[in-house]
Amino acid sequence: MLKNKKEPLSLKLKGFLFCSMIEKLKIEQLYKLYAEADYNVCTDTRKLENNSLFFSIKGPNFNANEFAQKAIDSGCKYAIVDEEKFADGKNIFFVEHGLKALQNLANYYRKQFTIPFLAITGSNAKTTHKELINAVLSKKFKTLATIGNLNNHIGVPLTLLKLRSCHEFAIIEMGANHQGEIDELCRIAEPDFGLITNIGKAHLEGFGGIEGVIKGKSEMYRYVKEKGGRVFTNGDDDLLHDLAKENDKISYGCKKLYDVIGKQMEEGETVCFKWTTRYGEKNWSKLPLIKTQITGTYNFINCLAATCVGNYFKVEDELINEALSNYVPEMNRSQLVITKTNKILLDAYNANPNSMKAAIENFASYPSENKWLLLGDMFELGAYSKSEHGVIVSLLNEKKLSNVLLVGNEFSVLENNPFKTFKTTADCKKFLTENKIENATVLIKGSRSMKMEELQEAL
């Protein structure tokens, strides 16, 4: 399989920037600097690598141009700045806009590769999809996948710049909190394939409501169609199915004869399922059972998506099943944690109204007599915050869940809230330390900044 189409450019660098004034760096020259820096870049002076290319990316509270010389003194080969006074034309070079230069370099470099690029976005479970799909595809390909959730306007370029000639497949996660962002990221990464996990009430403040979320997330479908690529779609999701009606699709789901059809099995505490294809075996009793290590029935469709992607790219059935059976969730995502006294369903990496609702509904049917829910605030909801937190409280009442502790300012200010609330995670932890929960099954969920995973120590 072809990977690198072009040889590194051969340009004379030393002194070419010094004229009567410092000139802006061109993309070909920037690419040459990147090649001379052994194809390594960094943006954080706390994590510098020797002989790398440092980009000064300004933040809301700091001017990264001021750190360029420190980067050089600490071992970086070159540094990029977007304020002329910091450039010397020898090791520190001037561009018009540091972040845009990083993005342009990533796109220029991406064009050197002819391997498949799959982009993943959605309101929930982007990282879970990415991890599951990577687990499956890496059974056949040498993959590059987004590390953690480096999925924004900085993380996507940094991921692309980690491509190497050995890679045979790229899996790029894309996050967004406003319209236009997914389109921008697609034009940097130029994916051939796309997958939207779902569209729900996430980042309502930035998107301007649910209609804005729909418009923003579906930018991926529009880009892939424009490029002539294909999308993987959950056929059971009416919204996604409708948004992708003009796309070339590969489908998965349970309700119809899709390209990949799945059936969830009630076998234990983690997701268990079987799958087949449009033209495959339809006698479910003859199909192997996949027992995963990921909790939450809502993760079944995530596993099926990974199955569909693997099947399309001709990963052998046995290897797909093996990958999903052996995948172990990390980073506080859908983990089953057993302590000396309790069983914890830890899903505290992030939360929005849709994922919180799914977690509560799943937990309500969980087979345990002593169940507790420790739920933290959901962020970035703007004017919708009070009403959406109120909906969660109503759902808890509807499901007759009584052992509930709510954490955060948003939950604390709700009227007619029958549950015990705490302003901070630390306050809740103190309460749990003094009032031990034992022999219970506990769901922990909340937005990332709430750090709800810290409550494990008291359980």
Topology (SSEs and partners):
Elements: H1 27-36, E1 41-42, E2 53-55, H2 68-73, E3 78-81, E4 92-94, H3 98-110, E5 117-121, H4 126-137, E6 143-145, H5 155-160, E7 169-173, H6 181-189, E8 193-196, H7 204-207, H8 210-217, H9 219-227, E9 230-234, H10 238-243, E10 248-253, E11 260-265, E12 270-277, E13 290-295, H11 300-312, H12 317-326, E14 335-338, E15 342-347, H13 353-364, E16 371-376, H14 385-398, E17 404-407, H15 409-412, E18 420-422, H16 425-434, E19 440-445
Parallel strand pairs: 1-2, 2-3, 3-4, 5-7, 5-8, 6-7, 8-9, 9-10, 10-11, 15-19, 16-17, 16-19, 17-18
Antiparallel strand pairs: 11-12, 12-13, 14-15
Helix pairs in contact: 4-11, 4-12, 6-9, 11-12, 13-14
Description of the molecule:
The protein is α/β, with parallel strands linked by helices and 459 residues long. It folds into 3 domains: 73 residues, 3-Layer(aba) Sandwich (Udp-n-acetylmuramoylalanyl-d-glutamate--2,6- Diaminopimelate Ligase, Chain: A, domain 1); 214 residues, 3-Layer(aba) Sandwich (UDP-N-acetylmuramoyl-L-alanine:D-glutamate ligase); 124 residues, Alpha-Beta Complex (Protein-Tyrosine Phosphatase, Chain A), CATH 3.90.190. The protein is built from 16 helices and 19 strands. Helix 2 links the parallel strand 2 and strand 3. Helix 4 packs across helix 12, helix 6 runs parallel beside helix 9 and helix 13 runs parallel beside helix 14.
